């Protein structure tokens, strides 16, 4: 991949990066942040390719065929370093930082820039962050360090303070829809809009939802959630089914459903919902459930989101949520 095409919603961010080059004021360290799914890594990779290219074109893009570009495409460029969490630990370790620093002790091969990208920089453990901080405190000429994160607040303040910041903004809905339609021409506008809503308007996340079976899984989970409310499914059985699903964010989906129900209490139109395709069903819940009780259930969901990443058994979390959801709906039926 040459990263020659600019993502349509990143014009302002790209111009900001180009200003560093044109004004000869390249920062030592740059922090690129924003929610997941906005193409932050693509933006940074494109900039790295441009900086390391021996003959960039008039549109400020890497040429794609010079020796440096060919090395970048082969992932063997000696002046480019890329760090990311190692699975299954999902952290950037002190060992990775040590290997990086050893490589940086050598001189540049092409006498241009050296570029270090640290993706998901917030996953550096304490020792790794401390070692990396020491390097940040001793700037090296013509070396650019780029930290990418979607969890800005998890980075140590000492690291943040040594970086210039570049936020990547959420694109306008029209831009996202047009781009997604180019990527998935067979997708309906309705599915694109639904996936964008589920992805909090992040195009890359929405593209993932359009490509895999996320949308169908979400619809199936909603039907089961609805069945629990109607006492047609037992909470324990549904929890057992949900625990078998991996790499899905069912609690986050439930949070969005409850937010949308709450919005209907304030006569919000379907266009402003997270789940516009479910508006009739969600509106029916708004007519049945008291706002105070709904907010208490919402609080349980937020707590459960935090607990899902702990050592607590996730099935027991699902059971607690679904039993509370059943009780919430059963109590209302009993009152009526």
Short note summarizing the structure:
This protein has 336 residues and is an alpha/beta fold.
Strand order of the largest sheet: 2-3-4-1-5
Please give the CATH class of the largest domain.
Alpha Beta
- Mean of all residue-level pLDDT scores: 90
Alpha-carbon Rg, integer: 24 Å
Question: Termini, distance in Å?
Answer: 61 Å
Number of DSSP strand runs? 5
Query: What do we call the CATH topology of the largest domain?
Result: Rossmann fold
Order of helices and strands: HEHHEHEHEHEHHHHHHHHH
Poorly predicted parts: none
> Helicity, in percent?
40-55%
- Profile the largest sheet: 5 strands, parallel
Kindly estimate the percentage of residues that lie in beta strands according to DSSP. 5-15%
Task: Count every helix, treating DSSP H or I runs of 4 or more residues as helices.
Answer: 15
The secondary structure category is alpha/beta
What is the second-level CATH architecture of the largest domain?
Answer: 3-Layer(aba) Sandwich
Structure description:
This protein is an alpha/beta fold and 336 residues long. It is built from 15 helices and 5 strands. Strand 3, helix 5 and strand 4 form a beta-alpha-beta unit. The chain starts with 10 loop residues before the first helix and ends with a helix.
């Amino acid at each position: 991949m040459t990263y020659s095409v600019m993502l349509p919603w990143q014009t302002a961010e790209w111009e900001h990066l180009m200003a560093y080059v044109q004004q000869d004021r390249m920062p030592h360290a740059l922090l690129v942040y924003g929610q997941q799914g906005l193409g932050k890594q693509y933006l940074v990779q494109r900039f790295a390719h441009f900086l390391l290219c021996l003959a960039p074109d008039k549109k400020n893009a890497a040429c794609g065929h010079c020796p440096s570009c060919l090395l970048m495409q082969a992932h063997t460029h000696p002046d480019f370093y890329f760090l990311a969490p190692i699975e299954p630990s999902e952290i950037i370790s002190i060992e990775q930082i040590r290997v990086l620093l050893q490589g940086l002790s050598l001189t540049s091969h092409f006498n241009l820039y050296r570029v270090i990208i640290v993706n998901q920089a917030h996953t550096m453990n304490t020792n790794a962050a401390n070692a990396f901080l020491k390097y940040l405190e001793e700037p090296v000429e013509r070396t650019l360090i780029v930290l990418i994160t979607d969890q800005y607040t998890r980075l140590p303040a000492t690291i943040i303070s040594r970086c210039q910041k570049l936020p990547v903004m959420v694109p306008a809905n029209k831009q996202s829809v047009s781009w997604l339609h180019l990527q998935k021409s067979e997708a309906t506008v309705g599915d694109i809009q639904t996936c964008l809503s589920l992805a909090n308007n992040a195009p890359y996340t929405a593209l993932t939802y359009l490509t895999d079976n996320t949308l169908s899984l979400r619809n199936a989970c909603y039907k089961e959630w609805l069945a629990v409310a109607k006492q047609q499914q037992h909470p324990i059985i549904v929890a057992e089914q949900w625990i078998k699903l991996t790499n899905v964010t069912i609690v986050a989906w439930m949070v969005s459903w409850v937010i949308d129900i709450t919005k209907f209490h304030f006569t919000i139109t379907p266009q402003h919902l997270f789940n516009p395709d479910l508006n009739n069903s969600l509106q029916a819940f708004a007519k049945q459930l008291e706002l105070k009780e709904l907010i208490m259930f919402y609080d349980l969901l937020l707590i459960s989101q935090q607990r899902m990443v702990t050592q607590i058994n996730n099935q027991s979390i699902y059971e607690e949520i679904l039993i509370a959801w059943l009780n919430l709906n059963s109590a209302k039926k009993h009152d009526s």
